[in-house]
Structures are given as C-alpha cells and as structure tokens.
Specification:
With 102 residues, the chain is mainly α. The protein has five helices and three strands; from the N terminus they run E-H-H-E-H-H-E-H. The protein has a three-stranded antiparallel beta sheet.
C-alpha cells in the first residue's frame, strides 16, 4: 500500500496535526509528518520512519483516511495515477454569430 498526504494549506496541515495528536499522541504525529504530500510512500517505509508497531499505525492510517488526510493506492493504481496524462476534449472551433435575418 502506498500513501500520500493531502494538505491544501498550512492551516489545514496544522488542524490535521492537532486532530492526530489529540487522538493518538506524539508518535502518531511523527507518522503524519513522515508522509509526504508530493510523492507516495510505502507503508513499510512509514513503519520505519515512525517507529510505530503495525497495528497502531494501521489505526492511525484508518483515522487519517476517514478524515480525508490521505490518498491511499495499491501498487498498480498508484503507478497509473502517477503516469496518467489528463485527457483533453477535442476543441471545437468557436461558432460564428449568425447575421440577423431581415
């Protein structure tokens, strides 16, 4: 499983940190801060970075997912998401206004 943090602003990040700290303590906050918001991280890497046991980390990840703080992807989905190019609709030429009929 791959994880990526979803933060839109510094205020949102601060609020998320406060929620996690209140629910799980400082160790969970370390896990939150170890998840990047610009690239994917492996759950195994997060276990190492946070120093948490897997059971507790799973609870923190579940909470963060329910609160909308994370994007979670499996290996295949993550790879597709990273390499997907946005599709563009074929552009239509602007329509010329019709002259008024007498």
């Amino acid at each position: 499983m791959k994880l990526k943090r979803v933060d839109e602003s510094h205020i949102e990040k601060f609020r998320n940190q406060a929620k996690i700290s209140k629910m799980f303590g400082k160790t969970a906050l370390k896990a939150y801060n170890a998840i990047p918001n610009d690239k994917w991280i492996d759950e195994e890497e997060l276990l190492t970075a946070s120093g948490m046991d897997k059971e507790t980390l799973d609870k923190v990840i579940e909470f963060m997912d329910k609160e909308g703080m994370l994007e979670i992807a499996t290996e295949g989905a993550e790879m597709k998401q990273e390499t997907a190019q946005p599709t563009q609709e074929p552009s239509q030429p602007p329509q010329q206004p019709q002259p008024p009929q007498p």
